[in-house]
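The freezer alarm interrupted the setup, so I double-checked each line after restarting. Inputs confirmed:
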Amino acid sequence: MSTIPRSVPPAPAVGGALLAGGPQRPYRPAPRRDSVSSWRWRHRAAYGACWAAGLSLCLIAVAILGYMAVEGVQYLSLEMLVTRPEPSLDQAQTGGILDPILGTLILTVMAILIATPLGAVAAIWIVEYGRPRWLARTIESGIEVVAGTPDIVLAIFGLAIFQLPLFAPLSFTADGGGVFGRSFFAASAMLSLIAIPMVFSATREGLLQVPAHVREASWALGKTRICTIRSVLLPVVRRHIATGSTLGMGRIVGDTAIVVVLLGGSLQITPVGDVPVLDVLKGSGSTLTTYVYNASPAGEGNAPQKAYAAAFVLLVLVLLLNAVATSIGKRSSPLEAHS
Amino acid sequence: MFRRLREPWTDRQAAWRLGAVSCLVLLVILLMVVFVAVKAWPTLSNNGGVGWLGPGEDVDKQMSAMLTTSRHPDSSVYHLDAWPLVYGTILTTIVAVGFGLVFSVLAAIFIVEFAPEWLRRLVVPAVRLLAAIPSVVYGLVGILVLVPFVNEHLISAERRKEVEYVVQLTGTGVLVACLVLTVMVTPIMIAIVVDALRSIPTAWTEGATALGANRWEAMWTVSVRAARPAIVAAAVLAGARAVGEAVMISMVSGSRGFSPNLMDGLTYLFEPFRTVAASMIEQVDGLNAPAISSSVYAMALLLLFSSLVLSIGGYVAKLPMRRQGMRV
Amino acid sequence: MHLSRRRLAALLAVLGVAAAALPAAASAKSTITISGATGSEPLVALLAKKFVKLYPGKYTFRIAQGGGEVGIADAAAGRVTIGNAARDPRPSDPAGLNFYGFAKDSFCFDTNPANPIPNLTREQAIAIWTGQVRDWSQVPGAKVTGTINLIGRTSASSLPPLVESLLLGGKKISSLAALKPSDGLVESSVAHDKNAIGFNSSYYAHQKDVHAVAFEGVACTARNVKSGQYPGVRNFYEVTRGPAKGAAKKFIDWILKSKDARKIISTSWVPLVG
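Predicted 3D structure, all chains:
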């Protein structure tokens, strides 16, 4: 533990430092007097191929973003953001995207409220306690399995679970006794599963970077392990948990398969019953992703322009979340001040 | 009870409580595998285990027939020959990961070695951007931009006539799906490979340069070779993503349970198909029919199994590297 | 201090559980769930909207689509209160279902406005839909050339068997046809493809972005349905498991008997008398 350099920032789950944008080790400077024209043709071809790959990457990114921005901003208006959508064949009468935006917000908040404690607690237990060892390794592999599972499988599994009579209070029950099984509760439960691995890895990286002497000092002063975690370690890994949560939120906002299967597919938020907040959570609705899916030629609607606008809002939201995660990750930890 | 929770926890209590919460996640995974297997059982038993993966009659017709059965259909209804779907999945995954891997390694070398500083500052955020775009946006761009382009400019009337008695060409198909899927999986691979390339000690590449290698040779023979475990890991991750991609594929692949025929020449690129994951998401409305439900769960089991196979494949691919003393 | 906090927490927990388990029947609103045919869904949605306006605060509707066959299956399994069926009851239907017919509808072939075929005879329709004729140049009256793109429906819909029996003389639709899960999708596919031909209920076939094709010289309108000249006719039914009860009974009685409902149905469809 003490051999980990303290100035290395947290590396989030997948893709490491590049995707999180944290401070990185300096790139190797190119040695001089090695002009490409002196190379063999094979190496020059490879050099050209590398340049082509890099430039086309830029071009693709600019093209997608630019196209989405142009088309999306064209059809986006403030009025669209606050009007409710209406099912209609005529594109002019299909209303706005208020319900999808609300649906996205509700699902993200609920899912991250479930995922953050679960992921953080799992990471803390595995790093700080972790006995018996086989259990710790199994839980780690289990979380990796969840991270690698396609979201459509999680969605189908969620449907199987939430259509059980046991979970009938969490969604709508038809007159004949059939449990609908699709509601905000169901969707957010399954969406939290895709965020847990990100929170878990981020928290674990943060905990592993805390030098051993900090823990040992706390134990030497007579605090128990759990007290050390609560008063010494948690404040340090708070920002790692925040980074993991924000990255998880980015994934949740962009997920379509789980929402298509588990949110009931009604365009507007349709509450079930009369209790103020619970009726919305038991009901069905839509999110930005299902709205885009349905408004595109692959779904019901004839509204490609609204699809562009909604996709643009979605893209802005996702990029914003990732930028926030990056900036949280960049701030220096309180431990580095005295290393 | 809450008062007892607020008292300072002892370490033993804490280990139990935190461990119990951690086991919750494990429980969910076990439940998932068990549930999916139980619900998939009718299809598996009626088709002889893995027989439903083989070729046979039109899979679209079989699944259509399953939609309108009663609550307790007889076992002939469960018959499924899902080979076209499996073929479509294998096709798109291999193409996307194959092309993507080549492209990613080249782009990663570009980012690490050849790019001038100002260009690097553009390319790295571009990679981050592409990795963050949700798959439904990729599908939207595909279906609203690429598909009409292919339909109007790349598919000629003669080509349509060639296959008009076999299948209808509408622009959605192998070409657009593979293209968009490649663009989707590439950023993840680039990120992993770049990380690996930059963690190679500079002493190694400097040694190669000292022995007379140029920049490309030093990079290729030393860094990329040393980063092979990461390249394998990137391929495995990208493969898992490609196999599980449902939404984007269902938007741009044409949604027919049809195996594109290589013998058709270039027309192969324009023929519609469907993958296993896309079939699952399209049958969501019909999940109340028992035969459809067990078929979809059987496909879910297949996807779970394929993630497992991919991980094992990655492990096996890294074994020879371990023997060379590399830390994999 | 501890005691009151503990009591407060227990009280909140009990309230929370009670609130979550509050049955919907305790509220004044009854919910009617409907699923089924995409062809009759526009009409049922209009009827539901008027019904809610007439009896404010008493009823809410949840209308889903899915196709006529799915509607009948859902009603039989008790998953929905009312199923929208768009075909006559068959002996193979589950037992115990009550079919309440309330409207007659026509269904037509439609093409893209760039290809406004004035008429299709039965032989031409059979040749096109069975896949014998694959090129528009062989269809008289066609304004486009190239391969014909057939747009059909999945088997969740009741429409393909009706098209086959009433318009195609019992011949089967070719497996070349693209299978769309709803009327709306068929209509939008035809609207976006110059070479497409599909079949739709009258509501969708008469949208501005598609052209409804006359069959055997008879235009596909409600008037021709009433006079009996147009062969492509089907009935809309509301299906319940057992005789309709409670809110469903009120709704169905209103559809069958009230003048407002007849007026709504008469706009583009033909009300069934009795």
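Quick read of the result. Chain A touches chain C at residues 87, 89, 169, 172-178, 180, 265-266, 270, 272-275, 278, 297, 300-302 (CB under 8 Å).
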